[in-house]
Design a protein that fits this description.
Layout: H1 5-8, E1 9-13, E2 20-25, E3 35-38, H2 39-43, E4 62-64, H3 65-80, E5 92-96, E6 101-109, E7 114-120, H4 121-124
Parallel strand pairs: 1-7
Antiparallel strand pairs: 1-2, 2-3, 3-4, 5-6, 6-7
Length: 126
């Protein structure tokens, strides 16, 4: 299961009734380094627009790539300790980075794909 695990992982925004894919964005007016953002931000006015924290067209959910990498490493460390037959779907945990706290929920977990739902608690609240 852990072979090529990085290629199997996709992240989704949990700030909506149904999870929405997150995408990598870079070099905006406000944020110069690449980061993951909710794909509804791309469809709306963009990441530099004023956010109100709601899950509208300009969803404020995002995370930097350092936190993404460390969140995935924490997840890998957790699943390595469990038997290979463990079902991780709906499993959830918190990741605390240098500047952000993330709530993470496993949306899908099988040999072909792993979907992790993410909500940035620092930006969006609970």
């Amino acid at each position: 299961m852990l072979i090529n695990i990085w290629n199997k992982i996709t992240v989704y925004c949990l700030n909506h009734e149904e999870p929405v894919p997150m995408v990598i964005m870079s070099n905006t007016k406000l944020i110069k380094t690449p980061f993951y953002t909710c794909s509804t931000t791309i469809e709306g006015e963009g990441v530099d627009a004023k956010f109100d924290g709601n899950a509208g067209l300009n969803c404020a959910n995002r995370m930097n790539l350092d936190d993404y990498q460390n969140m995935v490493l924490k997840f890998i460390n957790m699943i390595e300790k469990e038997p290979p037959t463990t079902n991780f779907e709906n499993f959830s945990f918190y990741y605390k980075g240098a500047r952000q706290k993330l709530y993470v929920q496993v949306l899908k977990f099988n040999d072909k794909e792993i979907r992790l739902g993410v909500k940035n608690i620092t930006i969006l609240g609970k």
